[in-house]
Design goal:
The protein has about 160 residues and is of the alpha/beta class. The chain contains 5 helices and 10 strands; from the N terminus they run βαβαβαββββαβαββ. It has one domain: 3-Layer(aba) Sandwich (Oxidized Rhodanese, domain 1), CATH 3.40.250.10. The termini are far apart.
Length: about 160
Amino acid sequence: MGEDKIQKQSGKAGSAADLSAAASYAGDISPLSAWEILQSEADAVLVDVRTDAEWAFVGLPDLTALEKEVLLLQWQVFPQMARDGAFNEKLGEMLSACRTDMDSAVIFICRSGARSRDAAISLTGAGYRRCYNLAGGFEGDLDANGHRGNVSGWKCAGLPWRQR
């Protein structure tokens, strides 16, 4: 995969461990690069870290064509939007059930790429070596009219999605 498809992002984090994980997470990838990884690697997974409300009202990536399911696990719990302190433990159990390991590609997606980046950094800190953030997320950035889905992200890339 070329350097144009994967970009390392440095970010501000709280602790030294956060900074170390942020420096070593696999990076941000485009929606099409994510699709390529999911298609070519049997153990690669897509983890949607948005909320129940977002899954229900906005829709979900559809991996049916790849004979895969999106893993759904909230990074922040709606409606308080507090981070789920057991996120890594819960996800570790889900990944184990999918027969992924610490070297499998784990791709995170949220609305626009912020929560999913935090989740990728967190899971990297737990020892997983290939945690990616899907740049632009599911809906992407706002366009000139304040709408999502037209500038960047999964939907804008024309990748399959469905209503829940």
